[in-house]
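2 proteins. here.
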Amino acid sequence: MKRREFIRLVGGAAVAWLLRAHAQPSALPVIGFLSSRSPDEAKQSVAAFRSGLRTNGYADGQNVVIEYRWAEGEYSRLPELAADLVQRGVAVLAATGGEPSALAAKAATSTIPIVFTIGGDPVKVGLVGSLNRPGGNVTGVSLLTSLAEAKRLGLLNEVIPDAGVFGVLINPNYQQAEAQSREVQEAARAIGRPIQIVNVGNNQELEVAFATFAQRNTAALLVTADPFFTTNRNRIVALAAQLGLPAIYEFREYVDIGGLMSYGISLKEGYYQAGVYTGRILKGANPADLPVEQSTKFEFVINLRTAKTLGLRFSDNVLSLADEVIE
């Protein structure tokens, strides 16, 4: 082959290769979305997370891909699901649905950036070194919802001041369970209210708990902050309705489906902020330098339709405390 023909042949092949390479888009960054919850009930939270991503110019399927892993209330599955996402080589790991997801993610990787949403204090549970400068590869949003059990019990006592024993649902598998139990017992002693704490960690125990409340003529119910309860909120609200049991919950999502009342932060705002942080990290921000966001606005929501069904009447004082009343 003549030298000129060889150069023309090689040059043509190189141009063709460059054209093919240009035509093929580079691999999109992957976000691992780890949750202790379930996909059906978490749709609004996922939508809020995606909305937060969009503030940084990221849209799932366009310039980023989101890989979802759901534990559906079974916390024991989270370590395996987190390890799977780490092996997948995700760019950022969004560990949502409380402390169980966040701690599983942190145990799975010390290099991949992690953005969490939890209910308690991330310093106390060992996720970060401090709120202002988290250090390491972890930051996120603290919803502070598991630190408001005493307030919820007090509101329940305001609504039903003359009732007998209050039931309290606590998930012993949740990292905040012991602190929640102490807080509720101290609050109960302060207001002189007898309580009955029932531990519930799975669906079978949930059914048994409400049977126990029925047998013991429980007057009202506090459902403590826990992702397992949030995942099963439809069933919990239905069981409370069957017993005619007034109850207070952590998120307004319970009240929207017929729960009596809730006191807590906006779940959607927490997930939105987690999406914002995830987008910032994809753009190059260091999680060690992103302060942990803490929710500061708590809302008290009342469902008057449910109150009417239960034969309850809210005092003017309680109604004046409500941020929103569903009529």
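next one coming up
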Amino acid sequence: MSEGPGPEPEPDPPVAAEGRTGRRRGWRPALRALHRDAGYLAVGLTIVYAVSGLAVNHIGHWDPDFVSFRREHQLPPPLPAGTEDLAAAVRTQLGIRETPREVFRAGPDRLDLLFDRRTLHVNPRTGRVLEQGQKSRFFLHLANWLHLNRGKQAWRIIADLYALFLLFLALSGMFMLAGRAGMKGRGGWLVLLGAAVPVLYVVFSGGPGR
């Protein structure tokens, strides 16, 4: 009895293809890795600057740092007659530890206590207290403080490093892909479109000298 054909030999591994792939890797994978890591590092600061930029950009419509409030309190009579004693009694009953910047009589039925971010208008006869002031928008206040560089020299160094990170992200993003998806095709047109936005705005608005 004749034996059937033996198992077919396994094909040789695609050495040439792997060699071509290895030659194609070049510098773009390293650039993409650096771009990715720089983007991760910049996330926190980007959120701070983006949110603060939106808030400050509409400063004509609202206060991005503080929100105004108005509250009424009723203190039980009798209240002290003297100015200093009355001011101390009001602070004690309202649980205010802050020392007022100024205390003065605005009229026979009105004593005003001025603090840094609020004012108390006290009617010593009725015990009615009108409190008006501002309270901080916690995250926005901190973000604006950082964005506007009120942290001075130390924060200026961090802001400069962040600007360099953004510059690297912009430039590296232009060369991460080759071919039609990169600068020779769609990427190049998108770069031109993005660059045209500030140029066209300056042209049609007349620029800073208008």
